[in-house]
Structure prediction request, 319 residues.
Amino acid sequence: MDYERQPYRRCGRSGLLLPAVSLGLWHNFGGGKSLDSQRAIFNKALDLGITHFDIADRYGPPFGAAEATFNRLLPRSLRDEVVVTTKGSNPMWDGPYGKGNSRKHLLATLDRSLARLGLDFVDIFYLHRDDEETPLEEQVATLDYMVRTGRTLYVGVSNFSPERTAQAARLLRELGTPLLIHQPSYSLLNRKIEHGLLGVLEQEGVGCVVYSPLAQGLLTDRYLDGIPADSRAAEARFLTPDRVTPEVLAFVRSLSELAASRGQTVAQLSLAWALRDPRVTSVLVGASSPEQLEANVAAVDRLDFTDDELAAIDRAAKE
Ligand code: NDP
Prediction:
């Protein structure tokens, strides 16, 4: 583990530091990929000082597979050098208790996650999404209970609105279990959190780890000459080819020049851009190869932006 390779940033007003670039296991860690290729990405992450691995009960395919893979990849001697997360809420099994944010489902799904991970506890457990049909009081009381029973050290929410995040933070504070972190989507192609959520997180002292900062690969040079057969858009499960539009490609081309003038690729510029805001603790990237991960972590070599550069990016986004 090279702890000099990248900065570790404070997660909100907590005691926890997270690497500027974290690795997510949504793709590439399920069945259908060889353990060797998964090990190569995981070991590269460790080399690059990535101490934070983002997982969820559903990540695979099949559901649960990414947790089982992580169990095989993590040497137990490194358990205290990494932050391991999982999430619950999305449908996992049949029937009324197989999904949602009821206490009944959440405790069961976390216990199944811990069994697959081969761990006594995770470092962060997230509500993967809000569940308007379950009282927020029940949702947060379950998070508090998970901490008190030693199943997780910290708790977070993902995909919650600014208003519900503020409410959850207040309720959790009353219970004595602070809301550590929020996990929203954020990239140059999706700037919604700038209009409300980031302000709430700052006010509440909650950290922010942003997912899909490369818009699943759109904000890279991957699609400039068509859709490669081994790309996520070709797989067409979560990123469909119709999202590779002429407008997106024109935006990426216009960013390329600016990136080159900074000595960066479009991917590196996009990650550095997301990290320019101190309220963003970490960017959560995916990678289908060790080379992609290495290139992405190199974004931290140039995190500063001039006002002119930021204005040029905003102009390009509006064109
Ligand atoms: P990214 O936006 O970083 O997309 C990753 C994909 O982009 C890679 O799989 C690869 O695609 C391509 N890519 C990455 N680096 C490069 C590069 N340097 N050059 C060219 N292409 C590159 O993030 P993800 O969408 O994968 O999300 C990251 C993590 O966020 C997930 O693993 C998960 O942990 C979390 N997440 C959470 C969600 C939530 O609801 N809480 C929802 C979605 C994600 P290819 O396979 O084509 O090579």
Notes: The longest strand covers residues 152-158. The chain has eleven helices and ten strands.
